[in-house]
Specification:
The complex is a heterodimer of chains A (358) and B (303). Chain A is of the alpha+beta class and 358 residues long. Chain A has helices at residues 42-50, 72-75, 92-102, 107-120, 136-148, 166-183, 194-200, 218-223, 228-233, and strands spanning 4-13, 16-26, 31-35, 57-62, 65-66, 77-80, 154-158, 186-191, 203-208, 211-216, 240-247, 250-253, 258-260, 272-277, 282-283, 291-301, 306-312, 315-321, 332-337, 343-346. Chain B has one domain (5-20, 91-296): MetI-like fold. Classes of the chains: A alpha+beta (358), B mainly alpha (303).
Chain lengths: 358, 303
């Protein structure tokens, strides 16, 4: 059990600024997800917390105590690596026992702890095998067991599910949430998969180019993205962004369309804006007073739903529709917009406009 | 990861098997190839064959004209003379062989103990001008030993290392450390650093992580590297002849060379000593035969 706080982390590799002032506060017992595209500095942040790399600047506090200069061993953390990093010459049992051996636990304690972990993760049958004799999913479970076998201050997980196939990944998502609930403890979990972030996290920190873009609950990050980039990164299919500006009680699109101005926005007339519309807040099936006209550009049937691409001027809108929807490309259609759920961003800075009036 | 020597450095021999005899000449060309290779083999192997023959010939047959290729009396007297002095007791040659074992062995151990941790550090840590440092280390091998032997001789005379086994051990270790660093760095690079990261999070120190988790994976590479260092020290002649003079310090190469000269040369003894001298090298070269090829193309062999 413990809190993890990092402040002003800076780290560069040659000319690349991997971390550019990262500050995060991980509350005790939370499932904290660091989300970002590859190269955003997620792994570097995690390695900084673990004490594996030297920082250019910044501090790491564990349980409120400054641990910036501590060795990894002294920090009392556990980590799951993306590559699992299971010791190749040792059996699964010896791998799981390693953190306990390093801390000089008695062999009876070790045996009991390994047994407890292997039953929690359903790997009892695999304990005498070596990593080379394990499948990817099995290695993943052994790596998890090695991290979870102790009760450290926090568990660090570096994209632990990335190397698994889709079905296993979905399964392990649920499993990890279950483990977090049953064991407690603070999890700092790094991923580039927004579905993982939204489905597992208590708190999400979105990272881009070594800078924190937004920290919040999954709902906050999805419903109130702090800027245009977060809005585009979180959510699938990605949010559609249309250039426009406000004029009186209208929003005038750069492509010539007009929509009623959302009641909550306070943007002054003429300021260049971006209107962000998520696919589920658009509809081609029902008519409302706020609508855009365009032509059908393409259909992406996804089984449970179909994504309709609608071209408005030169811009493409992604619209969520029922799987039964049909149409032919080029066909004219109207897209109804739920303006109460729309987002507005400053076109210059990309920052979300105040939604105080919402 | 360096699971075994063969795995870590794959040389992929005999790739020509897959190539059909389509290219010009076909069968005739193959015959020519075999013929030329046979001529080359005879030229290369004849001295070795002659050495072995001479070592088991009686003295009368050694000097016979015309030379006797097959019809000679076999004797082991020369080999006895290599090890035993004529008046009883140990011969000077056998002492020199023992010196070679000590000098080559200790200098190899020293080079390995110094070079392996250095290679690990160069592989794992970020440091200033790492490439320049590595190039500098390699550049010490560019120089032919004979260029530095005079300054070394003068320095050794000053510090009293002339004509000592320790002197030879130090100079051989100095030559082998750069080689060990370069060869071992390749092996260390093959072992993921994450094993050590994981071990440190388990609660081990960095050195414990290296010792318990990385080092065992490096053993095949260390063995191969050590054999190379051993062969270098065993064969070395220039420093040995300049820096040593007394029989109880001399290593085998100058001792064997010393048998030639004077009014009469006991060629049987020279040949027998050479055979004895060559055997360890042959045995070790056989053990690391794949790496001999890799060593020639060092740096080019990457996966």
């Amino acid at each position: 059990m413990g809190t993890v706080a990092v402040h002003g982390l800076r780290k560069s590799f040659g000319k690349v600024q991997a971390l550019d002032g990262v500050t995060l506060d991980v509350p005790d017992g939370s499932f904290f997800v660091v989300l970002g595209p590859s190269g955003a500095g997620k792994t570097t942040t995690l390695r900084a917390i673990a004490g594996l790399d030297k920082l250019d600047a910044g501090s790491v506090h564990l349980d409120g105590r400054d641990a910036t200069g501590d060795t990894p061993a002294a920090r009392d953390l556990a980590m799951v690596f993306q590559s699992y990093a299971l010791y190749p010459r040792r059996t699964a049992y010896e791998n799981i026992a390693s953190p306990l051996r390093a801390r000089r636990c008695s062999s009876s304690e070790i045996a009991a702890a390994v047994e407890r972990m292997s039953s929690l993760l359903h790997i009892e049958r695999l304990l005498q095998r070596r990593p080379a004799q394990l499948s990817g999913g099995e290695m993943q479970r052994v790596a998890l067991a090695r991290a979870l076998v102790r009760s450290p201050r926090a568990f660090l997980m570096d994209e632990p599910l990335t190397n698994l196939d889709l079905k296993l990944r979905v399964e392990m998502r649920t499993e990890l949430t279950r483990i977090h609930r049953s064991l407690g403890g603070t999890f700092v979990y790094v991923t580039n998969d927004q579905v993982e972030a939204l489905s597992m996290a208590d708190q999400v920190a979105v990272l881009k180019e070594g800078k924190v873009q937004q920290v919040g609950t999954p709902t906050e990050v999805y419903e109130r993205p702090a800027n245009q980039w977060v809005a585009g990164f979180v959510g699938s299919p990605p949010i559609s962004l249309l250039a426009c500006h406000a004029e009186g009680d209208r929003l005038i699109g750069a492509e010539g369309w007009t929509l009623p101005r959302p009641r909550w926005t306070t943007a002054e007339d003429g300021r260049p804006l971006l209107l962000g519309l998520r696919s589920e807040d658009l509809s081609v099936e029902q008519r409302g007073d706020a609508s855009l006209s365009g032509e059908l550009y393409g259909l992406e049937p996804l089984g449970d739903r179909t994504v309709v691409d609608v071209r408005v001027g030169t811009e493409i809108l992604k619209v969520k529709a029922r799987p039964t929807v049909t149409g032919t490309p080029g066909e004219r259609l109207h897209v109804t917009v739920d303006l109460d759920r729309a987002h507005l961003f400053d076109a210059g800075t990309g920052l979300a406009l105040s939604e105080a009036g919402r | 990861m360096a699971g075994s020597i063969d795995e870590a450095v794959s040389t992929g021999p005999a790739r020509d098997h897959t190539r059909p005899a389509r290219r010009g000449g076909g069968r005739g060309r193959a015959v020519l190839e075999v013929a030329l290779l046979a001529v080359l083999a005879v030229v290369m192997l004849f001295p070795a064959l002659w050495m072995i023959e001479t070592s088991i010939k009686e003295n009368r047959d050694v000097y016979a004209i015309p030379a006797k290729f097959f019809d000679f009396k076999v004797t082991m007297d020369h080999f006895r003379d290599v090890f035993a002095a004529s008046g009883g007791g140990r011969s000077a040659l056998s002492v020199s062989f023992l010196n070679s074992v000590v000098v080559a062995g200790v200098s190899t151990v020293l080079a390995t103990v110094l070079g392996v941790p250095a290679a690990w550090a160069y592989s794992r840590f970020a440091m200033k001008a790492k490439k320049d440092q590595l190039f500098f280390i390699l550049s010490t091998r560019f120089m032919p030993p004979v260029v530095v032997v005079i300054p070394i001789f003068l320095m050794y005379r000053q510090v009293g290392l002339i004509d000592t086994k320790l002197g030879l051990i130090l100079i051989y270790a100095a030559f082998n450390v750069p080689f060990t660093i370069w060869m071992m760095k390749g092996f260390v690079d093959e072992v993921p650093a994450e094993y050590e990261d994981a071990a440190m999070l388990d609660g081990y120190t960095r050195l414990q992580a290296f010792w318990k988790f990385t080092l065992p994976l490096l053993l095949p590479g260390i063995a191969a590297t050590a054999v190379f260092a051993l062969i270098f020290s065993w064969n070395e002649f220039v420093f040995a002849i300049f820096l040593t003079s007394s029989d109880n310090v001399r290593t085998a190469p100058p001792a064997i060379a010393g048998l030639i000269g004077g009014t009469t040369v006991d060629w049987g003894l020279v040949a027998a000593a050479s055979v004895v001298f060559a055997l360890p090298v042959l045995a070790f070269a056989y053990l690391v035969r794949r790496h001999l090829v890799a060593g020639v193309t060092l740096g080019a062999v990457r996966r």
